[in-house]
Amino acid sequence: METQHSRVVTYSKNVFIPVTNMCRNHCGYCGFRRSPDDPGAYIMQPARIEEILHRGAKSGCTEALFTFGERPDEDAGYLKRLKAIGYNRTLDYLLNLCRMAIKMGLLPHCNPGVLSYAELALLKPLNASMGLMLETTAHLQVHEDSPGKVPGKRIESIANAGKLKIPFTTGLLVGIGETRADRLESLRIITELHRQYGNIQEVIIQNFTPKPGTPMSGHEPPSFEDMLWTVEHAREILPADVAIQVPPNLIPPGMLIEHGASDLGGISPVTIDHINPEHEWPAVEQLGQKVGSDVILRERLPIYPQYIRQGWFSEDIQSLVQHLASDDGYRKVEKWRS
């Protein structure tokens, strides 16, 4: 039973689909990216994605999380692979994947990197929400060979999503060389964007984890104390209607919830975290053990309740949103207490 002292913490159930791992950026901490001529470079085939979506729908998921390497179309080797499955540009492939997900009863949430206003406008009708990690407003060495990680470009993309009224996820990547002052500045920029456009539904505070074979493989991850400091300041700086998300497969969330975190992100019963494959998702049934006895766990959709109430979704997904959402905008299931 919910009391005035209970805290509500949310999560969604998703399928995590990394459509391609080819990317124009060369971030010093990324173990996901491949060049088109690398062993292990891929574009997921439509039949494989359809099978994952089907498993997700059967498992009770509501979100199809489509992630990409950023702007792989800039590489001729990638385009050759893309054309082999019948597409001249990634955006067209992504639009069809969104339609496939909706047909199966899953709401798309696309995270393909920096996009233009026109590209966002094409994706908006077929997405419940979208995302792009700001990571940091600082210019860092780990991003020097990553044209998509120029802070101004990422800020512009988030602002364009705001102009289009796209419910949006962004966040900070903590421990990649930025200072605490840099984090505060990043949080202030996100706050300014939300105050202007009102579209930031959640901010992820994600801890860097070292990946073998990367330039930062020997770099120490941020301490728990540093993460706690960042969550506390995020809650002080960000508007009250912006949720703070922490990833429960990367860091114990309990104390972070006590200091301002209120969301655990997407938990998949079907797919791994392809960006951090060495860190397993906790099972939904285990979440209660991680969040504290005074916490009410509620399953949400990829679009937050306030944006459902405001009608920030298109006719293309209206019937699916209404089918999945309860009267208060959460998932249409009974809430349960840890």
**Proportion of residues in extended strands:** 15-25%
CATH topology: TIM Barrel
Q: Describe the oligomeric state of these chains in a short phrase.
A: single chain
Low-confidence stretches: 334-338
Number of helices: 11
Structure description:
The chain has 338 residues and is α/β, with parallel strands linked by helices. The chain has one domain (14-337): Alpha-Beta Barrel (TIM Barrel). Helix content is 33%, strand content 17%. The chain has helices spanning 46-58, 76-84, 90-103, 117-123, 151-163, 180-197, 224-237, 254-258, 287-291, 305-309, 315-324, and strands at residues 7-20, 63-68, 107-111, 129-131, 168-174, 200-207, 243-245, 263-267, 295-299, 336-337.
Topology:
Blueprint: E1 7-20, H1 46-58, E2 63-68, H2 76-84, H3 90-103, E3 107-111, H4 117-123, E4 129-131, H5 151-163, E5 168-174, H6 180-197, E6 200-207, H7 224-237, E7 243-245, H8 254-258, E8 263-267, H9 287-291, E9 295-299, H10 305-309, H11 315-324, E10 336-337
Parallel strand pairs: 1-2, 1-8, 1-9, 2-3, 3-4, 4-5, 5-6, 6-7
Antiparallel strand pairs: 9-10
Keywords:
33% helix, 10-stranded mixed β-sheet, 338 residues, 11 helices, TIM Barrel, alpha/beta
